[in-house]
Design goal:
The structure holds two protein chains of two kinds. By secondary structure, chain A is an alpha+beta fold. Helix content of chain A is about 30%, strand content about 20%. The longest helix of chain B is centred in the C-terminal third of the chain and has 15 residues, at about 105-115. In chain B, strand 3 and strand 4 (about 55-60) form a beta hairpin. The chains are: A alpha+beta, B alpha+beta. Chains A and B meet through helix 1 and helix 17 of A and helix 2, helix 3, helix 4 and helix 5 of B.
């Protein structure tokens, strides 16, 4: 391994600009003469908008224009679509009404944009938005996902019972048969609490229309600028694709929330032509809380059937998933193909049957948030496995090992074919690192100090690099999930790599350069990674679902193969040897068995000078592109163990130890991978202990600021012990599985399993706040006394 | 409009501003010093932390006119030319950042923590003192290590007791 190659802890190339304040985020970009947009948003969860009187707003200083849904409709600007078709059990297609970018008819959640005011300054636009007279007819709202299907309130005329779909997966009869012969059945009802992603950079957009060329430029906080351009062109009719440039510059975190196309960037782009000015909008934090797609929000009943030895026979799951008021871009696939397909966990389960109803409520739309369906699946699987082990009096680690998938490939009853893994290796390593054998001693020590100590496992599996495209298409996806790359070798031998992946904290400028530097034998500083601009990169699918290593880097590897093949042809002419005798190693082309050689920069220069090879056979230049479509999903998996100490007098949970042993396949940069794991665990711990999006019964989001929504702080979290085991992924050329979501997927079950172990009581909802834990401790103490 | 004058990163600056202009707006919009970020509306996130007369301040919580005559240092003024401040170098060395959005405020707070506590603050102190800075990417693990290492490299004399 070289100092900068695959597997090296290379310090990040992008850091210098971030630590010196020289990053370039969307709100940092300014265009001369720009105007500012402020949105007037519905204060009601459900209301008919009878009229919008803009006369007072238009009379205010600086106000340039006021626009409503009628103006968008007049220009035939379409509604935001759902990008993944799901069919119900009865074969009928889902009911997925579009989301108008400004309200047309009814507002369906607090925050739904009713109108936009464009003004010279942001303050003037804000004053204008407040001066709009909106005449609402308030309607009853439905907020609770468990009540909406039987509610008298109807959100969308074309979605009866407020239901998007009633979907199933698996073999119902086989599962019933498994339960019929069960020795023991464990039953569990779980709520997966609603979260707000909270990337630290609020969403923003700056759009500029050039009347001279008829082209638009949009700077926006996007994880996938090409998909944004495609949606805005093909579905929203804002501008043709070749007349719309979308730039996602430095983006301050995404976690899924910046995948989707939102009303604000559409309206700013459209309005920049209307007012003849560049238009800028930046969300404030409360606006982010009530407009960024939320995450999770499931209610689930699950039953697990075992034989007398604790071997799992069957698994039955019934889930209701809250989509919020509209189906966001990828929302419909999250509780289906990203959720129920992972319900086999790491276990060899003969029969599984899952039913999922996706429902509408008068709340912010819900879509993929770090992990997207897989955290929800892992929470169900790892909670019920833990409870089953406890009920049957089997050590939870032993119970898991007894049921692990051990032979690969393994076909689960829920679509997935696991390709490689060694789940016992991760579990054993994690048990060693946390000293599982010494836990009972530590528990006794805690008890002597009046504290309750518990330990919780979470053996998660996830599916990343969602592909091949034809397979996801057959499941309903509206897009392919390949990735593109272009490797441009300059005449002097340095290299630009254009990638369809997008970095918003993942460190692609470093890890992607590691691959290129190693393959071409050049310095890592000789490689520039270009991303996030539709005028530079031809097309790409962006970054989400832990796909950029497995899919994006594989595309680069494929393009590098082509560069190397062409460079070898040129080197053969320069070295006057047969192409088959040319070897390329460590940046040098040599003729096998001789001392004749030539360096990579010399070949690059010759490729462009084009004097020494026949251009009738070999085109001048050295630039190659590739589109890479994976042959299977990748299956990262691992074992997280959380150890907590609870003060029963206060209910405060202290995480005293955390061990994560993950199998991500080949690791490109361990430093960056560990950072991804740390961050994921923090978000999972946030879900388990702190975070909750709370609505009141009228549909007001009560937790819409950092004063009310509890974000994890440094002293809420422990020092993490992070390690890996490696089974290379067989389905891509680099052996990478993906690491970005693992922590968020694994952590909630580990925390709750530890808390319930400490309390000896299974009834605790997330977030397990001190109040909730204190109450549960009281109940547990009463039960123990009885 | 009111005229306000102060020293920012060693340069004398002045501008006519509305009295309600926040310091962070003055820095970002008048001076185009966009390294100082805005991540919330309620002074919780700390992305906007700068130093005013040597003390850490959330620039969203102070009016520009309150800084009349003050010495303000932003993230852009922390390095000595091309040489990074030890805390900046420590954040890079210990991978204390991912998306980079909270990083300027985090580094400015970290420098202030070390200045107030002296020496190399321990892990518990660092975690407690970072209460006013939110990071969504790193889980704080590497930030804590960076602050400890940056603190050690800053060579601030140890204090008897933390304030």
């Amino acid at each position: 391994m070289s100092e900068t190659g695959i597997g090296a802890r290379v310090r990040r190339k992008e850091d210098r600009r971030f630590v010196t304040g020289a990053g370039n985020y969307t709100d940092d970009v300014n265009i001369a003469g720009q105007a500012h947009a402020v949105f007037r948003r519905s204060e009601h969860a459900h209301a008919a908008v009878k009229s919008v009187d803009a006369s007072a707003a238009l009379a205010l200083p600086g106000v340039l224009g006021v626009f409503t849904g009628d103006d968008l409709a007049a220009d035939e600007v379409g509604a935001l679509p759902a990008g993944w078709m799901i069919h119900s059990k009865d074969g009928s297609p889902m009911n997925a009404p579009g989301h108008p970018c400004l309200v047309q008819g009814k507002a369906r959640y607090v925050g739904d944009p009713v109108a936009v005011v464009i003004a010279e300054t942001q303050a003037q636009a804000r004053a204008g938005a407040e001066a709009l007279e909106v005449d609402y007819e308030e309607l009853d709202a439905v907020i609770d996902l468990t009540e909406t299907q039987s509610s008298s309130v109807l959100l969308h005329d074309d979605a009866p019972k407020n239901t998007c779909y009633e979907w199933e997966l698996g073999d119902k009869a086989a599962t019933e048969a498994a339960f019929a012969k069960a020795h023991h059945v464990t039953r569990l009802s779980l709520t997966n609490n609603r979260l707000v992603p909270n990337a630290m950079e609020p969403r923003a957009a700056l759009a500029d229309y050039d009347a001279g060329t008829g082209s638009y430029t949009l700077y926006t906080t996007s994880q996938n600028p090409h998909v944004a351009r495609l949606v805005m062109s093909a579905f929203l009719n804002v501008a043709p694709e070749h007349k719309l440039r979308v730039i996602a510059p430095d983006v301050g975190g995404g976690f899924g929330s910046k995948i989707y196309v939102y009303p604000e960037e559409v309206v700013c782009t459209w309005a920049s032509k209307k007012v003849g000015r560049a238009v800028k909008w930046t969300a404030d934090r409360t606006e982010s809380f009530i407009t960024d797609a939320h995450g999770r929000d499931h209610a689930t009943d699950a039953q697990l059937a075992m034989d007398e030895r604790g071997r799992i026979l069957g698994f039955r799951v019934r889930t209701t998933a809250n989509l919020g008021a509209y189906p966001s871009l990828f929302a419909t696939c999250v509780p289906t193909y990203l959720y129920a397909t992972l319900l086999s966990g790491q276990y060899d389960i003969p029969a599984i049957y899952a039913e999922v109803d996706a429902v509408y409520t008068n709340t912010v739309p819900v879509d993929a948030y770090r992990g997207a369906g897989r955290p929800e699946a892992t929470f169900v699987v790892e909670r019920i496995v833990e409870v089953a082990a406890r009920e049957m009096g089997i050590d939870p680690a032993t119970f898991r090992k007894r049921n692990f998938v051990k032979k690969f490939p393994h076909q689960t009853p829920v679509i997935m074919t696991y390709d490689a893994g060694d789940y016992a290796a991760s579990l054993n390593r994690a048990c060693d690192l946390i000293d599982y054998k010494g836990f009972n001693r530590r528990r006794r020590d805690s008890a002597r100090n009046g504290k309750l100590r518990g330990i919780g496992f979470s053996n998660y599996i996830e599916a990343c690099g969602i592909a091949p495209s034809a397979a996801v298409g057959s499941l309903g996806a509206g897009v392919g999930l390949w990735e593109s790359a272009e490797v441009r070798v300059n005449p002097t031998g340095n290299v630009e790599v254009l990638t369809g992946s997008h970095s918003h904290g993942q460190g692609h400028e470093t890890t992607f350069a590691q691959l290129v530097a190693e393959r071409l034998g050049i310095g890592i500083d000789q490689v520039e990674i270009v991303h996030g601009d539709t005028d530079k990169v031809q097309f790409g699918m962006g970054t989400y679902g832990s796909r950029s290593g497995a899919v994006g880097m594989s595309a680069i590897a494929k393009a590098l193969d082509k560069v190397e093949a062409k460079a070898k042809k040129i080197a053969a002419h320069l070295l006057e040897a047969a192409e088959g005798d040319i070897e390329f190693k460590d940046g040098t082309f040599s003729v096998t068995g001789t001392d004749k050689s030539i360096s990579f920069p010399e070949v690059s220069l010759s490729a462009y000078v084009a004097h020494k090879f026949p251009t009738s056979e070999i085109e001048p230049g050295l630039k190659e592109g590739a589109f890479y479509d994976p042959s299977n999903f990748t299956f990262p998996a691992g074992c997280h163990i959380c150890e907590v100490e609870i003060d029963p007098a206060t209910g405060v949970t202290d995480i005293v130890n955390w061990v994560a042993v993950d199998d991500f396949g080949v690791v490109v940069n361990p430093m960056i991978v560990e950072g991804q794991v740390h961050g994921g665990i923090a978000q999972g711990v946030g879900q388990a202990l702190l975070e909750n999006a709370v609505y009141d019964s009228s549909g007001q989001l009560l937790t819409a600021s950092y004063m009310d929504y509890c974000m994890p702080r440094a002293d809420d979290l422990p020092d993490f012990t992070v390690d890996t085991t490696v089974t290379p992924c067989p389905s891509n050329p680099l052996g990478i599985k993906g690491c970005g979501e693992a922590g968020a997927i694994a952590a909630p079950a580990a925390v709750i399993n530890a808390i319930t172990d400490a309390l000896g009581h299974e009834e605790i909802a997330m977030p397990a706040t001190p109040q909730a834990v204190w109450r549960a401790a009281q109940v547990a103490a009463r039960e123990a006394a009885e | 409009m009111t005229t306000v004058a102060m020293t920012v990163n060693g340069d004398s600056v002045s501008a006519d501003v509305e009295p309600r202009t926040l310091l962070v707006q003055f820095l970002r919009e008048n001076l185009l010093l966009t390294g100082t970020h805005v991540g919330c509306d309620t002074s919780q996130c700390g992305a906007c932390v700068v130093h005013v007369n040597g003390k850490a301040v959330k620039a969203c919580t102070m009016l520009a006119v309150q800084c009349e005559g003050a010495e303000v240092t932003t993230i852009e003024g922390l390095a000595d030319g091309d040489a990074l401040h030890p805390m900046q170098a420590a954040f890079q060395e210990h991978h204390g950042l991912q998306c980079g959005f909270c990083t300027p405020g985090m580094i400015m707070s970290a420098v202030d923590i070390v200045n107030r506590h002296g020496g190399a603050p321990d892990e518990a102190t660092i975690r407690k003192q970072l209460d006013g800075n939110i990071c969504r990417c790193t889980g704080y693990h590497n930030i804590v290590k960076a602050v400890a290492a940056g603190g050690a490299a800053m060579d601030v004399p140890a204090r008897e007791a933390a304030e």
